[in-house]
Amino acid sequence: KMAAAAGVAAAAGLWSEVNRCGQNGDFARALKSVNKILQINKDDVTALQCKVVCLIQNGNFKEALSVINTHTKVLTSDIIAFEKAYCEYRLNRIESALKTIQSASEQTDKLKELYGQVLYRLERYDDCLAAYRDLIRNSQDEYEEERKTNLSAVVAAQSTWEKVVPEDLGLRESTYELCYNSACALIGQGKLNEAMKKLQKAEELCRQSLSEDSDVTEEDIEAELAIIHGQMAYIMQLQGRTEDALQLYNQIIKLKPTDVGLLAVIANNIITINKDQNVFDSKKKVKLTNAEGVEHKLSKKQLQAIEFNKALLAMYTNQADQCRKLSASLQSQSPEHLLPVLIQAAQLCREKQHAKAVALLQDFADQHPANAAEIKLTMAQLKIAQGSVTKACMILRSIEELQHKPGMVSALVTMYSHEEDIDSAIEVFTQAIQWYQQFQARTNYVCCVFQPKSPVHLSLIREAANFKLKHGRKKEAISDLEELWKQNPKDVHTLAQLISAYSLVDPEKAKVLSKHLPSSDTMSLKVDVDALENSHGATYVRKKAGKLTGDNQQKEQGQGEVKKKKKKKKGKLPKNYDPKVTPDPERWLPMRERSYYRGRKKGKKKDQVGKGTQGSATTGSSELDASRTASSPPTSPRPGSAAAVSATSNVIPPRHQKPAGAPATKKKQQQKKKKGAKGGW
């Protein structure tokens, strides 16, 4: 009895210690006291519950879950449902957490809050929205703002990933989190400018909110703003401002944020900007997308986009095996998705295996008829790249939902024309016209994009007629034009075309039809010629005539138009021009064609160089110098010497004189180029 009394007293003391530590937030010490209590009574339900709570508060979720699972008889689901579900949620066992919550006998407020979080992680946004609405409606406590933030996050996710137009929840955007979520919803709708304004407001609110706390540093504020700046950069990228986006992305990476999800998204976006350029930078950035825990931070679509880009990067870096492995893995995860197959086909094309690429695409089109149109368009492109235009046309004509579209008809006609297969081109026109005639009969009226007031089949008939006329099929063209004219007898343009066509085949018929043309009086158009000539883009603009007065007016009336004589400009003369000297009559001829040209004198400069000390002259050099003879005019003076020329000397000025044998001006230019030369003569 005394031992039992001592045990009870010890347990009471320990419980007091647990209570005191719990209030102080010292859960490590509280856990030690709880373990001592469990040594006294290992099946104490309250002690076990406290142990689980202490472990959760210390972040030991695995150990806490282990305690719950090993004491299932004592810790029933009614007692510990929330703690068990929370541990599973934190350990990213989301499906298990959902089962635990749903199996609980009573849905407490705590379980409902956790249920909303679990649904969000499972991307069941409709159910999540309903859960948070119910919580906000039936709860009144200090956590109302957090619930509204979570509600706005669900709406933003619906807008971004499911392309659902978000409803106005009437939430007052008083916090930066609410502003940020509102901006994300706007991005999902494509309202990028509005989203940018919301993000700027969110940044301002974030700075205001955090700057009020004296313990928060500027680095902490920048770290908190990283996600807002990341979304701003994403908007810039969508707007085509890739340089600005790239700069902002790199600034965020330099901050080294702890959010691995944010880093992975930014790295992926940089890779998409780099594309097939700067692949070494992309290979560095792709490591950030492989960080631990990324898969739990991002949505399925984000993770899928990252995997696609990894496969494309492997292709651009010529890692064929890696590319095939990644694309095959993606295809197994999403068998109906187009991108993995397209990446595999692109890789085969890089390896010059076009036939295999086409076969791969054909298999996918057969297995997934819903996506067959896009696949067949790719197949046609590959056939065109191989030069098989006719086969490409056959593939395009097999796409039932597109074969009668005006754009497809135009493409097929162009391709057949390129192959000079006019019959097939006309057949395309005929089939399209028949299809639209039947379609018009069912829907009464279909409008053409190019001619809003004309049914599509009539537009196609006109195009077919023009095509047939161009390729010499006059009789077939006449048949089409007659049908057009019957549809609208007042169409003068069609009638004119019809008369023109008949004039080549049956001139008499053309004359008969020409009687239906309106008279010239009815066709006269009231055109302001002056306004037309002065309009923008006119090739000829008539000059406005000035007012004529006095003698000019009389001349105008008496003599008519008189051409103004242009004054001849005096030609420019050389500075050293001497009128007494007769100009060289051959001065306009090229140098080689002049009578006195004797060719270039090679080796002259070499012969003039002396072999003595610098500055010494070779004996007899002046006698051999042709520039000093009486028949040759003086050359330019050497650098450093004076050129004394008397006023009475018979010097022939430039452009009049016959050329000297030695091109002295070239020497000057060469010496000017030698900037580092020392001294001189």
From TrEMBL:
Keyword Transport: no
Bias-annotated ranges (Basic and acidic residues): 575-596
MF term (GO), any: ribosome binding
Keyword Coiled coil: yes
Composition bias type Basic residues, residue spans: 563-573, 665-681
GO annotation (BP), single: SRP-dependent cotranslational protein targeting to membrane
Compartmental location: Cytoplasm; Endoplasmic reticulum
Region listing for Disordered, in residue ranges: 542-681
Pfam families per record: SRP72, SRP_TPR_like, TPR_8
Stretches with biased composition (Low complexity): 627-644
Start and stop residues of the TPR repeats: 226-259
Ranges where the Signal recognition particle SRP72 subunit RNA-binding domain occurs: 543-599
Major localization class: cytoplasm
Entry GO CC: endoplasmic reticulum; signal recognition particle, endoplasmic reticulum targeting
Coiled coil: 94-149
Keywords tagged on the record: Coiled coil, Cytoplasm, Endoplasmic reticulum, Repeat, Ribonucleoprotein, Signal recognition particle, TPR repeat
Family stated for the protein in its record: Belongs to the SRP72 family.
Protein name as it appears in the record: Signal recognition particle subunit SRP72
Gene field: Srp72
